[in-house]
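PROTEIN ENTRY
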Amino acid sequence: MLIVGIDPGRKGAICEYWEDKDHIALYQMTIETFAERANQWTVYPEVAIYLEKAQAMSKQGVVSMFSYGRHFGQLEGILMGNGLDYNLIAPQSWTSKMTKTYAGDNAKQRALSAAKFLFPDVNLLATKRSRKPHDGFVDALLIAEYGRQKELLQNENNVRQAY
């Protein structure tokens, strides 16, 4: 099964996590890249897409939030246009589950600690010249892992109900 985690911000990212192959691919968020990847997801027999739900953010201006909402709507439109089902998840849902036991003074530091611990071999740098991990890569990776865990739990529940 392919699990997709999407951090929708303009500096966000896309994570493709092949559960059976144990392979992870990270992409920086652009509408063009997103449309290309979404088109590819249509060929997979099993794909679970987890998109972080858009919401107002403190200290953001009206124009900035409008732009963010428009961008989020474009992502949803691409998913719908490709006939792809997706799960909207609130940032609080995945962050509380994925980062609560990790060290850090703020949410970004806890997310980075969690990503490094859970995926020590995944390169979180956007380019070879980058010095610090890409926040979007960290978030998209953890969103995908959150989705993987939800899918496992749902499959276990389905098996139990069958008996």
The beta strands are 2-7, 13-18, 23-28, 47-52, 87-89. The radius of gyration is 16 Å. The helical segments are 31-41, 62-81, 91-99, 107-118, 135-162. The mean pLDDT is 90.
